[in-house]
Amino acid sequence: MSAVLIPPYTGCRSGGNSQTANPTVGTGGSTADRTVLAIKAKLAGHCGNTDRITNVGDADTKILIVDDHALLREGLQSLLSAQPGMRVVGTAEDAHSGISKIDSLSPDVVLTDLAMPETGGVDAIHLIRDAHPQVKLIALTFHREDGYVHAALQAGADGYVLKDDSRDELVIAIGSVLDGKKYLSPAICEQVIAGYLSAAEKKRLEPSWRVLTRRERQVIKMIAEGLKTREIAEVLSLSPKTVEKHRTNMMNKLDLHSVSAVTLYAIQSGLINE
Fold first, then answer.
1. Are both 77 and 137 inside the same structural domain?
2. Which of 20, 31, 150, 176 has the greatest number of CB atoms lying within 10 Å of its CB?
């Protein structure tokens, strides 16, 4: 049988347009652009494909489909059975029957929905992973929410594919997990990048001076305003020794090593305007 050709891909893509991830991200573009490219390079091979031919066609890959919608099961069975090197050995309408069929059919790959009655897909992934660690598991779902993605991967899923992805994308996912790789739908990959950038931006904007006590913030503000230790002590009704202690603690917490660094930090963080 002929091999399944996986199209060249080196990064996440959305809407069918490929974007090349450049692992040697360097000079051009904004910091955000360089960060996106760096993440895409890191995720290459896990999002939207590998960059080589996967010999699914020679492997007689056995697939089990677990989904509570009959039309979807039948459609997937027809679609994948027509794919060289793939054989749907069974289908199941719920997690329990799916797990029992794994014992009797020994599939190489299980495609499972996440939203099923009684035992859900995430619980099923847990159970299958514990009982059959050699089986490759792909969550096949409409759910794009981060919570579902995280839960499925934490449970032991090897791949996460959306039901509105193309047939080729599903074939690519199966080939990738058989190669021992994790796989994320391109749309989910873009979501991962967006989430990373959002978290990084939130962290960047989170005032680091929150680690300072109220008194330490007062001291840094006055240092930035040009007051000397004795002057700060008089304003705050403290001894110069106590002011020096607050100053040392503050500089250690913020990893600052000079009065000019303290002044610059106070200006950039907005403390000077408090």
1. yes
2. 176
